[in-house]
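Re: the request from the purification team.
They wanted to know what the chain is likely to look like in 3D before they choose a buffer screen. I agreed to run a prediction and write the result into the notebook, where they can find it.
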Amino acid sequence: MANQKIIEQKASIVEEIAKKMEESASYVFFEYRGLTVAETNELRRKLKEIDSEFKIYKNTLSKRALERLNVAIGELDGPKAIAFGKDAVAPIKVLSDFAKEHKALELKIGVVDGEIADQTMLAQLAAIPSREGLLTMFASGLMGIARDFAICLDLHAKNLEEK
C-alpha cells in the first residue's frame, strides 16, 4: 500500500495540472529530450515573454488530469513537457519557431480552445501571422479600399467638370 502522504502529494499535482489546463486557452505536449539547460532556460524565457510557461510532469499524472477534464488525447509515451498559454496560438508559434532552431524539441499534440490539435493542426496554427500582423493586413486592406474609392470619386468629379 502506498504511503498516504505520497498519494496526497500526487493528487495535489494532478489538481495543479488540471487547474492550469482549465485556465489556459491552449496547452501543448512536446518532447524536450536533448535540449541543454541553457536551451531550456531560453525556451522558458521566450514563453514567459508571451505570458506562457512550460512544466515537466510525469505522464501518469498528466493523464489523470486529462481524464479529470474528460479530454482524450491518446497515449503519451516518453517524457513530455506541457506548455500552457493564455493566448491560444502564441505558445504554439514560440514552440514551433524554437523547434526550427533546436531539432531536439518536437511538438506532439495539444488542446487549443478545447479542441484537440494534432501535429498537422499545430503546424497550421504556427503558420498564422501574429495578432499585430493580422491587424496590419486588415488595415492595409481597408486603406486600399479607401484609396480606390478616393480615385473613383476623383475620376467622377473630373468627368462632371468636363460636361
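For the purification team: The helical segments are 4-23, 37-49, 59-68, 90-101, 119-127, 131-162.
Please add any questions underneath this entry.
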